[in-house]
Amino acid sequence: MGKLPSSFILRSVVNGGSHLSNFHSSSSNTIATHIEALSKKPMPVRGKGKIDYRFGNVDDALIVFNKMIGKYPKPSIVEFNKLLGAVVRMKHYAIVVSMYRQIELLGVSHDGYSMNILINGFCQLGRIDFGLSVFGKMLKLGVEPSVVTFSTLINGLCIQSKITEAISIFDGMTEREYQLDLIVYNTILKGLCKIGNTDRAARFLRLMEGTGFEPDIVAYNTILDCLCKKGLLKEALNLFSEMKVKGIRPDIITYNCLIHGMCNSGRQEEATRLLNEMVDNNISLDIVTYTILVDALCTEGMICKAVEIVNTMRKQGIEPNVVTYSTLVDAHCKEGMVSKAEDIVDTMIKRGIEPDVITYSALVNGHCLQNEMDKARGVFNLMIEKGCAPDIVTYNTMINGYCKGKRLDEAMELFHEISRKGPILDTVTYSTLLQSMFQLGRVLTACELFRKVLASGQIPDIVTCLILLNALCKTGHIEEALKLFEAMRNSGLELDIVPYTILIDGLCKVGHIKVAKELFHQLSNNGLKPDVYTYCLMINGLCKDGLPDEAYKLFGSMGDNVCSLDSCCYNVMIRGFLRNSYTSKATQLLTEMVGQQAEATRLLNEMVDINISLDVVTYTILIDALCEEGMISKAVETVDMVIKEDIELDVVTYNTLVDAHCKKGMVSKAEDIMLKIYIYIYIRIQNLMPCI
Questions:
Q1: What's the pLDDT tens digit per position in 29-61?
Q2: Are the C-beta atoms of residues 545 and 516 closer than 8 Å to each other?
Q3: DSSP-assigned states of every residue in 223-284
Q4: In whole angstroms, how far apart are CA 68 and each of 77, 80, 83, 130, 670?
Q5: Minimal CA–CA distance to 328: which of 352, 305, 303?
Q6: Structural domains in the chain?
Q7: What is the pTM of this model?
Q8: How far apart are alpha carbons 555 and 532 in whole angstroms?
Q9: Residue 113's Cα: distance from chain center in Å?
Q10: In the chain, what percentage of residues exceed pLDDT 90?
């Protein structure tokens, strides 16, 4: 077996090697500071030697440990390793670290096995940096790292999603002919799937086969789970078929992964087929399977069926867990059945299952959806009293509820509470508050909040920036909007057409057409193409600024930019012509639009293809313009055409027509029009009668 030279490890893994020299010189207090808030995650420790100790709880282990360190002569490291291994099995990794340090202070020399235990402890605590420090000491003392050492480091790196470094160690082990086992391969597979790299995971599976390792059920389940979570169900089913062909019997985990994937994708029939296959293969549904089904039924709005499933579980001796109950609570709350959701919470408490943060957050959300903010606050306070700390989702739900109820001051109180004691604020928090501030007209407060976000070192996401940009434009704070837009461009955010369109709209509304035009022309320079909405805004802005010819030129260029004309474009252009007294051009464009003349041009063909129609506002503007120009007969024709199109004109349109006839001395014609109006209204009322 070849050694991995220390230079290889230091080059490929230990990039921040400062920990190597200072870890073992640091005090136990320093270590305790670092591990205070660390999580506990299980991983079996592998190594030589039989573990003799078995404890019911960690306190018993500590009693034995205190007796051992009081003995003279001191027990050997082999005896201590047995105890360390027992504590590791109980997943008290922080205590293992503390024990290791005390053993070291006694002067008992550590061996490779005890160092492997410590490396594993740090890896499970999420401190791969300290694990690498221990590895550095092994190299310094001349202790040869084993396969267990490297596989433990690989696992620690994968836990931290440092897959590239993990694969570097794996490749080094392969090159130097270390005897790899299935656990190492499965660890790499799990790491690749954790970061969603299914392609590389599949290739790694083939690599296993090529090196003589037959992937086991764990390997297949790992990739199946990843494929299903990414919605790659065809690939998942192919892999499922492959494992069956190879004689690997699917287990409950396999079926749960596939059923969950099918339910999430709305493929209920396929999920049912897999359930039946499970039963045929004598695989009983477990709590996970039932919870998947409950979630799927709730998602489909079939809450009664979901409740039936829960009742079936209990009859079969499977007690629903907090996840199952929380799913039901959330579904009832979203449907407005908050009182029933509270009954479910009472039931789970009676059965000895404590609600968690997800359960309470669902209840909070239910009350917020009903605008029952005082009740929501009551649940919020209750969860704190019960020792269940609200997470950012809970806070955001409360803040959103207060904002929707226009209770911004109370929302800000919660915001300041989060800022003081956590959890970490996210973009949802800021976006919700900013939007509410603008809706309530508190523009300066919103700008001040945004500046605080930037000052705190947080980088707002594109959604938050767009909310602020849109609000600034709508409230006429165009100078602030321009500054924000420049900041967005300089921040490295990838800007698409949306922020440009928002700003162009804002500029046009305040009459800054020149700047809007410059921004519009910058689109192509930045590799962006204006969409229909951007064109409409720019055309409308030009028309309002008295530039209908330039607007029409832009209107005609839309086809050149592969941007299809729609009703909005035609309506905007026609209105622009009419506002600028280009009545004949408006009439021509209208004629093209509705196809009333044989000589309809290219525009007519486009309109027929996409069934474009004018709206009532455009028709009213057109009729008014025709009357102003004295083209009363044309105005009457237009009204008749509108009625044939089944567009309901309002009283303003008819008043315009009657007034025009009266001014021309055509009173009898005006009376005829009035009669037509009465008949038209009568017919409309009669048509509506069956609906009343």
A1: 322 222 233 333 333 444 444 445 777 778 888
A2: no
A3: HHHHHHHTT-HHHHHHHHHHHHHTT----HHHHHHHHHHHHHTT-HHHHHHHHHHHHHTT--
A4: 11, 8, 10, 26, 112
A5: 303
A6: 1-180 (1.25.40)
A7: 0.64
A8: 10
A9: 43
A10: 35
